[in-house]
Amino acid sequence: MFQILSKTELAQGTVVANEIMAPKIAAKAKPGQFVILRANETGERIPLTMADTDPVRGTITIIYQVVGKTTALLKSLNVMDHIQDIAGPLGRPTPIEKKGTIICVGGGTGVAVLHPITRGFKQAGNKVIAIIGARTKDLLIMEDKMRAASDELHVCTDDGSYGHHGFVTDVLREQLTKLGSEVKEAVTIGPVPMMKFCSKVTAEFGVPTMVSLNAIMVDGTGMCGCCRVAVGGETKFACVDGPEFDAHKVDFEGLSLRLTAYQKQEREAMDAYQRKCACAAKA
Amino acid sequence: MAEDKKEKVPRQKMPEQAPEVRRRNFQEVPLGYSAEQAMAEASRCLQCKKPACVEGCPVGVTIPEFVHFIAEGDFVKAILKLWEKNSLPAVCGRVCPQESQCQGRCIVGKKDDPVSIGNLERFAADWARGRSDVPMPPIAAKTGKKVAVVGSGPGGLTVAGDLIRKGHEVTIYEAFHKPGGVLVYGIPEFRLPKEIVAAEVNFLEKLGVKVECNTVVGQSVTVDELLTKEGFDAVYLGVGAGLPTFLKVPGENLIGVYSANEYLTRSNLMKAYLFPEYDTPLVKGEHVVVFGGGNVAMDCLRTSMRMGADDVKCIYRRSRDELPARSEEVHHAEQEGVQFFFLHAPMRFIGDDKGWLKAVELQEMRLGEPDASGRRRPEPIPGSTKTLECDLAIIAVGSGANPLITATTPGLAVNKWGYIVADEAGKTKKANVWAGGDIVTGAATVILAAGAGRLAADSIHKHLTWGW
Ligand SMILES: Cc1cc2nc3c(=O)[nH]c(=O)nc-3n(C[C@H](O)[C@H](O)[C@H](O)COP(=O)(O)OP(=O)(O)OC[C@H]3O[C@@H](n4cnc5c(N)ncnc54)[C@H](O)[C@@H]3O)c2cc1C
Ligand SMILES: Cc1cc2nc3c(=O)[nH]c(=O)nc-3n(C[C@H](O)[C@H](O)[C@H](O)COP(=O)(O)OP(=O)(O)OC[C@H]3O[C@@H](n4cnc5c(N)ncnc54)[C@H](O)[C@@H]3O)c2cc1C
Ligand code: SF4
Ligand code: FES
Fold first, then answer.
1. What pairing do the DSSP bridges indicate for beta strands B243-244 and B399-400?
2. At B254, phi and psi to the nearest 5?
3. Element holding A235 (H helix, E strand)
């Protein structure tokens, strides 16, 4: 059992950050790694990236968007409550080296995943340009933290309610045009379509690019093959070979399709959960 | 003559759920002997002086002795006898391939049905489970030595049970949230109820074994860290053969195509068959195809039938004679309505524009010359293909060695397939590290993993006691 030490709602409650007691995981975790958790006995195993870790306090922080039953269930837990199971750290850590200028692009909750990587690159002595985006101002997360973790931060909103009016890809193109060969690497994390378009832009400029893939997972140890994605025509397991891959080789279409596998059941589970919550609230 | 009298007792049939009922539920198929039936069946044993059955048992259970105690109605002595050689009789009585081991050798079987040794083993273990009047095994005085067991399959559980009794401190590390290995994530409830595995684990915990789940050794902690920072004197690796094999044909990433590992983990460990009470989803499938002909394939076939499929087909590239699955499993599957397509191999999966599987193209095969394994090699019949509609395909054509541990443990030798190299006693090339079960032999059986665990436990004990 893993105790929740803090709970913060972001983006109007659509995103939640929890700091959780997990000393063994905190001691080992590196940027880019994730955990797989199960909220309770009947729960599903879901992967979430560690947005932060504090080996001294023995804690990890997860930041998740409430998109379905499991994340809704997690949100319903309060400080002092427990999460039944957390396994980790899983996946390969981000290879962080001093390279020169790095562009880090994050969209939606992807910013939470991007933050420790951004900070890692900066601490390694790189010049880091960060670009983050959201649909609208109220859904933007971690602006301050990203500003602190980078040398230069650009903010975009799709509806123009804050920062640059438009997509992160616009700013990415602008920066790449301006900086040219100075940019040694790009990292882009967010919804699949965003990663796909960012990857197209960086390919035009010939900048090596890394994406973190959110394939559906079960065990997270390379045992089941559920998380398989085609990368450069080869089948890779996102949980052990990734979650980060060379963006220019990833089959994003295949990944998007596989993410829809359980849409029907996910809706059914969420509806049943909401009905149950509504009943409980009335009683 | 005494023998004549004994042969008059007919073989006691195992009561079973009727096929038309059980094909849609997840309850156990065989219901178990009553005490009277068990005693009657046990009385069929001839108590051979040189028992052939024992030679057929990979761990040498003294079969005539435990069977004798059952015939006498002394079930306590029967279970104590079983435990001497087999740590998991309730499991083995259910899942061992007895027809090719003990029962396959039984003398009575030469003329008549052999003694139902597996059913008797199961009876004794079920009878004893949870009873307070069965004496607990004695535990030796504490030695102060610490052993880490990685993986909680039948091998790991056996090592843990043996070493705790010898006075060592034992911690099991398991990657999943529940201990049991393939017994909980692979073998379905209707063949091996999970409460039986849980009872075995509880028993070990009562003896003092610590079980740490959610610990992926190699990631959460490395083997070297266990031996240094964590202060263990020895490590046993019983991590199984947890790497799925895919067919490497086009369309394999379509939705509805699963590895057997994923399909079974979702349905067993995560209890997807109880969705939405349990949260984990599973593609149900109306028209199901399963590739492969082993026990794993049979489990997938029978599970998908229970999930409510309209039709379920086993596609196997050789013929019925070569089916590697236990005959009992094949028989059960057929009774439940599974159809067999022999001499067919997959060529490609065909999907719709939303990425869902909708058909599979098959190549017809014929049997050619025998290959290295002595089985006749299947070869394609040129120009002979057919397309089968399907919305769920499960690939059950074997599994390999998962590199997670071996890649993070310097000094551990592996063979060309990635399995850990270990001697008879389970000793690996790395000091203080033992290994056994599927990660050494490749996918095998529960009793072989348990047997390897017992030998390794003896070896570890000698090492910790005398430094051998
Ligand atoms: C390595 C990795 C790291 C991730 N990190 C984060 C993170 O830091 N923050 C965050 O908000 N999200 C993260 N995700 C996505 C997160 O796992 C899903 O949003 C979550 O599983 C949704 O569960 P649910 O029951 O609430 O929603 P559901 O209704 O079950 O699903 C909503 C959508 O989430 C995806 N999903 C469902 N089940 C799984 C599963 N078992 N594994 C992976 N994806 C699934 C599917 O695309 C589905 O359509 C990560 C995913 C991966 C693979
Ligand atoms: C579907 C199916 C049906 C079968 N049916 C039969 C049958 O009827 N009869 C029979 O005799 N045999 C059967 N077998 C084979 C039998 O189950 C195996 O041979 C046996 O379980 C192997 O035991 P093991 O102890 O080596 O490991 P496993 O049972 O494979 O257990 C290994 C454990 O180690 C854990 N692990 C793996 N990596 C790590 C890590 N890095 N850190 C921590 N833990 C880790 C795994 O999660 C797992 O729990 C079947 C197998 C399958 C898959
Ligand atoms: S071979 Fe058969 S009859 Fe002989 S001891 Fe074994 S079980 Fe009994
Ligand atoms: S989640 Fe099972 S192999 Fe990656």
1. antiparallel
2. -65, 155
3. strand A234-237
Whether A135 and A160 have beta carbons less than 8 Å apart is answered as no
Identify the pLDDT of residue B371. 82
| CATH code given to domain A2-90 | 2.40.30.10
User: What is the rounded average pLDDT of the residues B8-18?
Assistant: 87
Does CATH place domain B19-128 in 1.20.5.320?
Answer: no
Q: How sure is the predictor about A283, in pLDDT bands with cuts at 50, 70 and 90?
A: low
pLDDT at B90 over 70: yes
> What pLDDT is recorded for position B58?
87
Place of tokens 């968007």: A65
Q: Give me the CATH topology for the region B245-395.
A: FAD/NAD(P)-binding domain (3.50.50)
Which residues of chain B does CATH 3.50.50.60 include? Answer: 146-242+401-466, 245-395
To probe the interface with A, which of B211, B219, B269 has the most A CB atoms within 10 Å? B219
Please name every residue paired with A15 in a beta bridge, in sequence order, or none if there are none.
Answer: A10, A65
CATH topology of domain B146-242+401-466: FAD/NAD(P)-binding domain (3.50.50)
Alpha helices in B309-382 (DSSP H): 327-335
DSSP B428: B
Record the pTM: 0.93
- Confirm if A230 and A251 have CB atoms less than 8 A apart: yes
- CATH fold, domain A94-212, is Rossmann fold (3.40.50)
When pLDDT is cut at 50, 70 and 90, the band that residue B54 belongs to is: very high
What residues flank ligand 2, with Cβ below 6 Å?
A 221; B 95-96, 150-156, 173-176, 181-182, 186-187, 215-218, 238-240, 242, 264, 295-296, 299, 402, 404-405, 437-438, 443-447, 449
* pLDDT tens string A6-55: 999 998 889 999 999 999 999 999 999 999 999 999 999 999 999 999 99
Share of chain B above pLDDT 90, in %: 80
Residue B300, amino acid = C
Length of chain A: 283
Phi-psi sector, A166: left (phi>0), alpha (psi -120 to 50), beta = left
What would the two tokens of residue B301 be? 């076939």
pLDDT in tens, A171-210: 999 999 998 888 999 999 999 999 999 999 999 999 999 9
Q: What is the mean pLDDT of residues B296-311?
A: 95
Angle between helix B117-128 and B63-72 (nearest 10) = 60
Segment holding B206, helix H or strand E: helix B194-206
Residues of A in contact with B177 (CB under 8 A): 38, 45, 84-85, 87
Residue B151 has pLDDT above 60, yes or no: yes
